[in-house]
User: Fold Cytochrome bc1 complex Rieske iron-sulfur subunit from Kitasatospora camelliae.
Amino acid sequence: MSHEISDDNLPEAHGASHGHEVASHDDPFADPGLPAHEPRRTDIDERAAQRAERQVSLLFIVSMLATAGFIASYVIFPIDKIVTIWPLGEVSALNFSLGMTLGVALFCIGAGAVHWARTLMSDHELPAERHPIEADDEVRNDVIEQFRTGAAESGFGRRKMLRNTLIGSMALVPLSGVVLLRDLGPLPGKSLEHTGWSKASKTDPIPLVNMNTNKPMKAEDIVVGSLTFAKPEGLEEDAHDFQVQIAKDALMLVRIQPEDLKDAKSAELGFEGILAYSKICTHVGCPISLYEQQTHHALCPCHQSTFDLADGARVIFGPAGHPLPQLKITVDDEGFLVATGDFDEPVGPSYWERSR
Assistant:
């Protein structure tokens, strides 16, 4: 026997109790509402809830142990130790241990939080109608009440083991960032206050060597308007510490007509208008390589700090903090340019430990 089916005989769709319009043939895009809530096992079985609590706490404890392992790796493994790990091959023991321990620490915190939310926190879905951006007092009070309800249902205050292990893991993870400061290298101390020129004296001067020809220079080799780069004699490019030393010892030479010099002290440090300045910019340490002979201005290409070499390398533009250090030079008995002491100021950028 056949029966005629009408819309009145259709069963009530899920969500109708929430006040949403039921989908029909006439309006297939109507809001179907929320499905009926189905309790989880942890909602009805306290033993299952306690088991989930222990699992979450274990994840947080593993995170704490991994963070401790991250810090211990800095003590255990030297920077240059290489190990073979299948299938990666040869890798840095330090980098591998740091990556693994930090990854486990962060993963366990995330996995623990997700497991906690999915098994122990309330999972009731609550619809919220759209409202203007500026909420009224009723909405704000409702949000505050929902927050309090959510905090209570999360078990954060009641489940002490979860709370304490979460706080412990979150407190330890930032310590891994503290030990990373070691990779910044040793503190500069007074290393920038003395260069390779510090070994020079009036009785035992150091010859200036041309960076391009690797030969000593005579005063007549430096012509007005030119810019010449120099280094101390004995500093060879194949030396293991060449890059470290040249970063402090690099020198640039200019020759300016004596009547154009504006700073008497700077003129005394030079020889017949030949001035020797540090090539290292006093802003962030870039090498200066641009010179304008008409104005006697030297320009750093990195951030456009500009120095007046005719006026003691005074800063006339840009972010540099102080003038370029100058080297005391003269000539020896054969007419070669030599240095008789170190720079008059520490080379390189400003830093708070500067004593001069």
Residues 1-20 have pLDDT under 50 and may be disordered. The longest helix spans residues 46-76. The radius of gyration is 37 Å. The longest strand covers residues 337-343.
